[in-house]
Amino acid sequence: MSFIEINDIKKVYSSKQTKTYALDGININIEESDMVAVMGPSGSGKSTLLNILGLIDIPTSGYYSLAGHDFEKIKPSTIHKFRNKHIGFIFQYFALLKDYTVLDNVLLPLTYRKMPHKERIIKAKEYIHKVGLSDHINKIPSELSGGQQQRVAIARALVGEQSLILADEPTGNLDQRTGEEIINLLCKINEQGKTIIVVTHDINVAKKCKSIVTIVDGKISNNFKPDAMIL
Fold first, then answer.
1. 36: which of 51, 130, 202, 206 lies 20 to 30 Å off by Cα?
2. Is CATH 3.40.50.300 what the domain over 34-58+76-228 is classified as, yes or no?
């Protein structure tokens, strides 16, 4: 069994007169410690797929399992606990709490863990150090550059030792040099055994990944040409 199995996933938005297929029969297998880029034109279904993988949204039909867990068999009331334990998120616009320090932002995923407060602090500082921000631990987001804010977001995604990291355009709001630093950091994290899925419009980012999945009109496409992508 693969670490991630997606079989015939469909996501349909219905109105009285029409049905819109955001995803239409997606099949993907991803192995543990893989790093996969998801590419496609705007509106192709990339973000919908990421939301389903992250248990933020549920498919209309189809099968999804993560690390052997079949989500048809997990109670809806426990989904948020599973997500917090197993999945970390990195967003294009960082999604940091503006009045919280670097340390406080990284501590957030540990809030509901059964862990002494002192241990939470130690773990958060460990991951802040890993992303190179120990000297900025007491700063708030507005005192950081875009690249530094994304590093905080990466530390926050990793601190709970989640097995899957989902990154939605993690370099999309950064200049080229800073974007390269961030994707190289993600590659280093992947080399340490973390499974990472990156939605990106940047072919240079995608080439850093071990494999590329392309989606067009809600379906996996083998004929997709990134250079012709309409953003």
1. 130
2. yes
